Amino acid sequence: MAKTTIPIQLANAPTPAFEYFSTKKDEFVGWARKFSLFPYPFVTACCAMEFMAVSSSPYDTDRFGAALPRFSPRQSDLLMVVGTLTHKQAPVLLRVYEQMCEPKWVMAFGACATSGGFYQNYAAVAGIDKIIPVDIYVPGCPPRPETVIDAIMKLQDRIAGSHHPIITENF
Amino acid sequence: MAAAILDLMQQQLVPAGGEASLSHRMLVVVVLPADLLGTVRRLKSEFGFDLFLDVTAIDWPARTPRFDVVYHFYSTTHKIRVRLKTRVPEAEPLVDSLVSLYGSANFMERECHDMYGVVFRGNPDLRPILLYEGFVGHPLRKDYPKQQEQPLVPYRT
Fold first, then answer.
1. Structural domains in chain A (count)
2. Does the interface predicted TM-score (ipTM) exceed 0.90?
3. Are the beta carbons of A130 and B156 separated by less than 8 Å?
4. Using the beta-carbon criterion (under 8 Å), do A133 and B152 form an inter-chain contact?
5. Which end of chain B offers a freer environment for a tag, N or C, measured as fewer CB atoms within 10 Å?
6. How many angstroms away from the CA of B88 is the closest CA of chain A?
7. Are the beta carbons of A122 and B150 separated by less than 8 Å?
8. Distances from the Cα of B79 to the Cα of A146, B26, B84, angstroms
9. Is residue A52 part of a domain?
10. What is the pLDDT of residues A30-67, one digit of tens each?
């Protein structure tokens, strides 16, 4: 059996697998980014219990490259708003969102973050999308872990398929 | 023991113009706002009610006077509770603060002030505690519109 240690490609020579591959720059960066989501859990309410369940061993979001929570918004990509947002907290959420560097994504985790849930009163914001833009909504009160994992995978698909502004002619 | 204290309180505690009744074996005393501080002082010093549990209010929109201010106390020696009520009008929802007797009354009175607009005379700090500066009105009053929000951050359009 011939050894294939020489990585140089000869013209028209048959190619062993994985010595090179062709892709689009956007797809390549998207592929890298989608598996390195650093979530920032903005945990405000009871959905936190479900967040703990989904991020620890039985469901394990680590399998999707979205495991390590960063407790500084400046180091994170994915803002997970887990629970009810009150009007008093809205300025805090906006500040956290503004501190995050691009690229950044936002997940509304649970019914309250999505729409205010059953709180339609003086205290609660009826959905965090009134304050900051949201990329993906997770329904449920609280969401099933499968729903959250599905949301992460859908978000990853979206990241992989989107245009990444860092890609210029000189990239 | 508890029954004896209860009898004693029913006989001695209720000031003139007040009334007393039993609710689920707990003494309920209704006093005039002017008698509140004196009654609570006696509760604490003579009857051993050393724990202040809560103060809240009830809004009766059709009634005059409109608000009930409701206090609960607990005695850690006798293991009984007592409820104290007083009625204040909408025009001047004013009662004496209990901060001089129970330090824990401070935050609870602030909450009651937030939610019902009851003014506690003598409370050193009636700033909003659950609400925020600039909030207009008192959300647990029955005439506060149920869905009226007062956002701090302008909504995205």
1. 1
2. no
3. yes
4. no
5. C
6. 25
7. yes
8. 49, 11, 17
9. yes
10. 888 888 888 899 999 899 898 888 888 888 888 887 77
At residue A39, what are phi and psi to the nearest 5 degrees? -80, 145
Task: Look up residue B82 and give its amino acid.
Answer: V
pLDDT (tens digit per residue) in B99-123: 999 999 999 999 999 999 999 999 9
Residue B86, class by beta-carbon neighbours within 10 Å (0-12 exposed, 13-18 middle, 19+ buried)? buried
- What's the CATH code of the domain at B41? 3.30.460.80
- The number of domains in chain B is 1
Which residues of chain A neighbour B157 with C-beta distances below 8 Å? none
**The two structure tokens encoding residue A89:** 């907290």
Residue of chain A whose alpha carbon sits nearest to that of B146:
A121
CATH code: domain of residue A57? 3.40.50.12280
Is B1 in the A-facing interface, judged by CB distances under 8 Å? no
**φ and ψ at A44, to 5 degrees?**
-120, -20
Q: Report the greatest alpha carbon distance in chain B.
A: 66
Cα-flanking dihedrals φ and ψ of residue A14, to 5°?
-65, 145
Cβ distance A87 to B155 less than 8 Å, yes or no, reads: no
Q: Which domain holds residue B84?
A: 2-121
Q: pTM here?
A: 0.81
Nearest to A122 among B139, B155, B156 (CB): B139
Which tokens sit at A157? 């698909």
Tell me whether residue A26 is in a domain. no
B137 occurs within a structural domain = no
Query: Is A121 in Cβ contact with B150 (below 8 Å)?
Result: no
Q: Is residue A84 part of a domain?
A: yes
- Residues from chain A that touch B148, judged by Cβ atoms under 8 A, are 122
The answer as to whether B135 is a domain residue is no
Does the distance separating the beta carbons of B153 and A90 come in below 8 Å? Answer: yes
Q: Is residue B84 situated within a structural domain?
A: yes
Task: Indicate whether B73 belongs to any domain.
Answer: yes
